[in-house]
Amino acid sequence: QVQLVESGGGLVQPGGSLRLSCAASGSIRWILAMGWYRQAPGKQRELVATVTSGGNTNYADSVKGRFTISRDNVKNTIYLQMNSLKPEDTAVYYCNTGAALLNWGKGTLVTVSS
Fold first, then answer.
1. Per DSSP, what are the bridge partners of residue 92?
2. In 10 A of CB 44, how many CB atoms?
3. CB-based contacts of 42: which residues, under 8 Å, 6+ apart?
4. Is 60 exposed, middle or buried (0-12, 13-18, 19+ CB in 10 A)?
5. In tens digits, what is the pLDDT along the chain, a chain of 114 residues?
6. SS (H, E, C) 33-68
7. How far apart are CA 98 and CA 13, in angstroms?
8. CA 53, 7, 80: angle at the middle one, nearest 5?
9. Nearest one of 27, 41, 32, 37 to 6, comparing CA atoms
């Protein structure tokens, strides 16, 4: 099965930006939808953005206008550009298919704090 490795997290001040990457060990070309999820402390994991193989995107209301998801089917990598970050964006971020069909990676921690 395809393995997923997330990276790019870190500590950032409110209003700052980060770019997350998710590298897949195999081809994602044939996967219809890939997504970024996040899990904040004490909360359930939630889907924040998806991108289809055709490039169509969808976002949770909480991140719409601030986050941008993209995919590179040649590099087998998914990206999440996060701008205007807020403390409530603090979470561990994961990637997976839109239906969460693959094994979860370790995620990458994003902390938004002054």
1. 39, 109
2. 6
3. none
4. middle
5. 889 999 999 999 999 999 999 999 988 888 899 999 999 999 999 999 999 999 999 999 999 999 999 999 999 999 999 999 999 999 999 999 988 888 999 999 999 999
6. EEEEEEECCCCCCEEEEEEECCCCEEECCCCCCCEE
7. 29
8. 40
9. 37
